[in-house]
């Protein structure tokens, strides 16, 4: 993309793109790519699937640019393509969930929510602080879990209206619905969400210090120090395993009989960020092993009093996606 394309008038870029100028098309849609990927992630619950959908949608947009009508905006047109591609995929797939959100019966058929690397929210740095905070709240695990309980079309309406700020008329145009149907779907979605846990953005110095203490307690193998930082109703899960440990008693038992049962094992926690939340890449080394091997990505939720209310340990996360090493040589 030429340097002057970044500053070109969108109308000029559209004219050039319609004439077959690929660079102009890239400059036209470039400002929207990050937010489109975030929207697709909210819809699908997987960063990789979101990237694939957006790439496919932009290819379709390029191929159908000659049929684009100047009704509304290019942004709305792109959202229409991406959202409807997501709905097509969701017609053929199960909803995504976390272990805390379903009965273990039949868990083999569940598609798991996947953690979102901080690179996928980097474009939010250009937002003002209030808008950035609001956007991050809508990728936190609690929000996503609640949103993915909704039927796909209700989910799309909720995201387009309440998260992205499209009007009822614009949303109806994007989804091929009537305004009355959009309003009805939004009301049903909000009623459902009122009964679901809501994301609570807590990020301050006290919380960060608590997270550091949590990591050090794991590295020291100090179960009671870990327990002291947990809320009484804490939940601990490890997708793709279906097990959920609820409350400090169950978590204490799990730690003693599971990951911290062998004194010879050593743990190492490296700070990361996922879904706009504090997280750690976790590594474990057996007593005689030469290196720490990846054990998972722990995403933490906190109360306003800096107690840990939930830990979701994504056992199959690729830690390199979160800016962390694949393994660490013991020193």
Count every helix, treating DSSP H or I runs of 4 or more residues as helices: 13
Structural class based on helices, strands and sheet pairing: alpha+beta
The best one-word shape is elongated
Please tell me the overall pLDDT.
91
State Rg. 22 Å
> Low-confidence parts lasting 5 or more residues at pLDDT below 50?
none
Series of H and E elements: HHHHHEEHHHHHHHEEHEEEEE
Main sheet summary: 7 strands, mixed
Distance between the termini: 46 Å
Task: Specify the helix fraction band.
Answer: 40-55%
Proportion of beta-strand residues: 15-25%
Number of strands: 9
Question: What would you note in describing this structure?
Answer:
β3 and β4 (244-246) form a beta hairpin. The model has no long low-confidence stretch (mean pLDDT 91). Strands 3, 4, 5, 6, 7, 8 and 9 form a seven-stranded mixed sheet that branches. With 331 residues, the chain is α+β, with helices and mostly antiparallel strands. The N and C termini lie far apart (46 Å). The longest helix has 17 residues, at 47-63. It has helices at residues 10-18, 22-29, 33-44, 47-63, 74-90, 129-137, 141-147, 152-163, 168-175, 179-194, 205-220, 223-227, 247-257, and strands spanning 96-97, 111-112, 230-237, 244-246, 266-274, 277-285, 291-302, 308-314, 328-329.
What are the defining features of this structure?
331 residues, alpha+beta, two-stranded parallel sheet, 13 helices
Topology (SSEs and partners):
Layout: H1 10-18, H2 22-29, H3 33-44, H4 47-63, H5 74-90, E1 96-97, E2 111-112, H6 129-137, H7 141-147, H8 152-163, H9 168-175, H10 179-194, H11 205-220, H12 223-227, E3 230-237, E4 244-246, H13 247-257, E5 266-274, E6 277-285, E7 291-302, E8 308-314, E9 328-329
Parallel strand pairs: 1-2, 3-8
Antiparallel strand pairs: 3-4, 5-6, 6-7, 7-8, 7-9
Helix pairs in contact: 1-2, 3-4, 3-5, 4-5, 5-9, 8-10, 9-10
């Amino acid at each position: 993309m030429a340097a002057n394309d970044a500053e070109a008038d969108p109308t000029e870029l559209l004219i050039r793109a319609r004439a077959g100028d690929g660079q102009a098309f890239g400059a036209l849609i470039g400002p929207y790519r990050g937010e489109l990927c975030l929207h697709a992630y909210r819809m699908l619950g997987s960063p990789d699937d979101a990237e694939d959908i957006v790439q496919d949608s932009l290819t379709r947009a390029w191929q159908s640019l000659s049929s684009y009508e100047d009704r509304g905006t290019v942004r709305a047109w792109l959202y229409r393509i991406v959202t409807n591609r997501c709905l097509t995929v969701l017609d053929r797939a199960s909803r995504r969930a976390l272990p805390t959100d379903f009965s273990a019966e039949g868990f083999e058929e569940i598609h798991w929510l996947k953690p979102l690397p901080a690179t996928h929210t980097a474009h939010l740095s250009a937002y003002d602080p209030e808008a950035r905070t609001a956007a991050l709240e809508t990728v936190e695990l609690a929000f996503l879990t609640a949103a993915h309980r909704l039927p796909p079309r209700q989910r799309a309406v909720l995201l387009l209206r309440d998260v992205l700020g499209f009007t009822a008329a614009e949303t109806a145009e994007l989804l091929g619905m009537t305004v009355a149907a959009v309003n009805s779907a939004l009301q049903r979605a909000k009623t459902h969400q009122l009964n679901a846990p809501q994301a609570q953005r807590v990020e301050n110095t006290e919380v960060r210090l608590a997270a550091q203490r949590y990591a050090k307690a794991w590295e020291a193998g100090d179960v009671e120090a870990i327990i002291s930082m947990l809320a009484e109703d804490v939940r601990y899960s490890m997708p793709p395993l279906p097990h959920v440990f609820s409350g400090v008693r169950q978590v204490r038992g799990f730690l003693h009989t599971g990951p911290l049962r062998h004194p010879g094992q050593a743990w190492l926690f490296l700070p990361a960020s996922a879904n706009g939340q504090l997280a750690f890449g976790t590594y474990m080394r057996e007593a005689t092993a030469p290196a720490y091997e990846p054990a998972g990505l722990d995403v933490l939720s906190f109360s306003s009093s800096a107690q840990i209310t939930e830990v979701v340990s994504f056992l199959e996360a690729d830690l390199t996606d979160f800016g962390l090493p694949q393994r660490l040589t013991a020193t």
